[in-house]
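Tutorial handout. Part one gives the primary structure; part two gives the three-dimensional structure as tokens.
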Amino acid sequence: MEWQIQKWICGGFKAVRPDGEKIFIYRKLAWEPARYAEKISSYEFRWHGLTAGRLTAENSWRKRLKLLFTLDAPSAINEQDLLEISRQLTAGGEL
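Part two.
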């Protein structure tokens, strides 16, 4: 299905599917000094108050993306949904 990504509050995003399903995407900050020096961008996907996944991107000359799906129970969203949203975020230059 096609997700529509919209800018949301505080640098976050909201992804909405045509059937009304929503995923909120929050930018996570690297609070630890060691992690801050690595310049890693990180986003957290939230679905119905649960952490559905995390997307991290190392900000180096060769950007490496890592997507982690964290829902362990059957739900209306799956890894493919987060992958599609992640592709749109990277294509839009958000990472």
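Part three, for discussion. Strands lie at 4-7, 13-16, 22-28, 40-47, 50-58, 64-69. Residues 79-91 form the longest helix (13 residues).
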